Amino acid sequence: MNKIESKEREQWGTRIGFILAAAGSAVGLGNIWRFPYMTGENGGSAFILIYLIFVIIICLSIMIAEFAIGRRSRLSAVGAYKSISPNWTFAGVLGVLSAFLIMGFYPVVGGWSLAYIFKSISGLLSSTAISDAFGDFIGNPIEPIIWMAIYLSFNLFIVAKGISEGIEKAGRILMPTLFILLFIIIGRSVTLPGSSAGMDFLLNPDFSKVTGQTFLAALGQAFFSLSLGMGCMMTYGSYLSSKENIPKNALLITMLDTVCAILAGLAIFPALFAFGLEPTEGPGLVFVVVPTIFSKMGSIGVILSIIFFIALTVAALTSSVSLLEVVVAYLIDEKKLARKIAVGISGGVMVITSMLSSLSMGILQDFHVLGLGVGFFDFFDILTDKIFLAIGGMLLAIFVGWNVNKEDLKDELTNGGEIDFPLFNLWYILMKWIIPIAIIIVASMGMVSMIKNGLLPLMLFGIGIIIASAIFSKKL
Q1: CB-based contacts of 118: which residues, under 8 Å, 6+ apart?
Q2: Which of 112, 275, 326, 376 has its CA 20 to 30 A from that of 356?
Q3: pLDDT of residue 476
Q4: Kind and range of the H or E element at 468?
Q5: Phi and psi at residue 364, to the nearest 5°
Q6: How far apart are CA 322 and CA 189, in angstroms?
Q7: CA–CA gap between residue 289 and residue 278 (Å, rounded)
Q8: Which of 5-9, 29-33, 51-55, 139-143 comes out lowest in average pLDDT?
Q9: Separation CA 88–CA 56 (nearest Å)
Q10: Which alpha helices (DSSP H) does 231-245 contain, by range?
């Protein structure tokens, strides 16, 4: 694996700028919107424990590998794989496709969070039917699309500005803001009478709810939350200075992401149990249950609701910017387009896919994509979360463990011997043997559950897409 030098490629301006931008990519809707309801549906801290094991053993190693391959190649996902082994181009294609498909529904939820800032101001919490209000909102054919378009426009503006002037500057502002807002909400949540039941839910595991689906959900959540298997960290790694300590940075980013997910749980579950509400609300948890919680807090609840949905919007934005950058970087590197043109093309297509996802909550709710039994929103979500991301991580592990020269990897992760990485041999064994086997086992367990839940057609479709990308990727 020869090291590619590129004087013209953009780079992060500072180490802290990269850390905050990469942590921002990891910290997103996966932490504040998705993590709480996945925890609620899968046995509380039993799910969290499994999630943390996957983060430590699998995801940290995958992140280190993505940064290493990205920086070594100085290219985005497709180019990075292709520059090392053309036969593996399809793995990069799968990463870009995953990022693109996630952006088919991510801006929709980002638009919801943005809308709920203003709904909190305009009297949402005084409504006696908050649940109905959310259903009416997402079922409206126009209003959610307007908010989605506004939210997506923020992404396009930031990415069009480039790496140091756009993504890095946004991360410097948005990430500290997010943590401050979460701590404000936690301060109120954990002091409510009866909040200790929520703490018990987070600390005492209920393994009776653990199934094969739980393991797949935890693995998918870990990949989704840390932006792995979708080309984000590989693309961000391609902008890294050769002086950066990759293992140390990866550990710090992983820790920040995990802390944020736990903070989101602390912000929601103590208050949830304090008011006798159910933790198994599902994807609507933060848009139905959370406003209901705040509505019971009086005038301070309105302020906290505004703060919460600002935090959710900020988290969403830091992640979706990185997802958009994966697609944009592919167009820049492989199709030689100017950044602003690449942003315009990507954004235009994402407007269409996001509109379809939004409408699948309303007037298109009875329409099933390709007869696979799910609407557009679930199609994009399930295809990426339960199939593409885990398989993408497995492919990366196999690629690094069996196709990349071990000494080249050591050279990259020690900056040519200038820094120590004492766990290199352990990391290499994990990548070569443990992680691929672990992912295969977990994916197999989860796929059995998918079949039981009637998702066999969608599962076969996803596998077919991966096979097709392997066959046709050499033409890219």
Answers
A1: none
A2: 326
A3: 58
A4: helix 456-472
A5: -105, 20
A6: 31
A7: 8
A8: 5-9
A9: 26
A10: 232-237
**Alpha carbon distance 440, 56 (integer Å):** 17
Burial of 300 (0-12, 13-18, 19+ CB in 10 A): exposed
* Pairwise CA distance, residues 29 & 152, whole Å: 14
Region 49-70 average pLDDT: 96
CA 411 from chain centre, in angstroms, equals 29
Of 37, 53, 18, the closest CA to residue 258 belongs to 53
Mean pLDDT of the chain: 91
Largest CA distance in the chain: 64
279 or 317, higher pLDDT: 317
Asked if residues 170 and 321 have their Cβ atoms less than 8 Å apart, the reply is yes
Q: Angle formed by the axes of helices 246-274 and 406-413, to 10°? A: 70
What residues does each domain of the chain span?
Answer: 15-475
Question: Percent of the chain scored above 70 by pLDDT?
Answer: 98
Give the dihedral of Cα atoms 440, 378, 110, 281; nearest 10 deg.
-90
Whether the Cβ atoms of residue 242 and residue 411 lie closer than 8 Å to each other: no
Work out the number of other CB atoms within 10 angstroms of the CB of residue 306.
19
pTM more than 0.85: yes
DSSP state of 210: -
Q: Which of 54, 51, 47 has the alpha carbon at shortest distance from 201?
A: 47
In CATH, what is the architecture of 15-475?
Up-down Bundle (1.20)
Band (9; pLDDT cuts 50, 70, 90): confident
pLDDT tens figures, 85-104: 999 999 999 999 999 999 99
Alpha-carbon distance 215 to 442, whole Å?
A: 6
H helix runs in 226-338, sequence order: 232-237, 246-274, 290-295, 299-335
Tokens of 324: 């958009």
Sign of the C-alpha dihedral computed for residues 271, 276, 282 and 286 taken in this order: negative
SS3 275: coil
Helical H runs in 88-211? 89-102, 106-121, 130-139, 143-160, 169-189, 196-203
Share of the chain above pLDDT 90, in %: 64
pLDDT for residue 7 is more than 50: no
Encoded amino acid at 451, one letter: I
| Amino acid letter, 129 | A
- Mean pLDDT calculated for residue range 359-377: 95
pLDDT-based confidence at residue 445 (cuts at 50, 70, 90): confident
Phi, psi (degrees; rounded to nearest 5) at 40: -65, -35
Q: What is the dihedral of CA 13, 15, 16, 18, to 10 degrees?
A: 70
Query: Which has more pLDDT, 253 or 283?
Result: 253
pLDDT at 293: 87
Residue with tokens 């991580």: 393
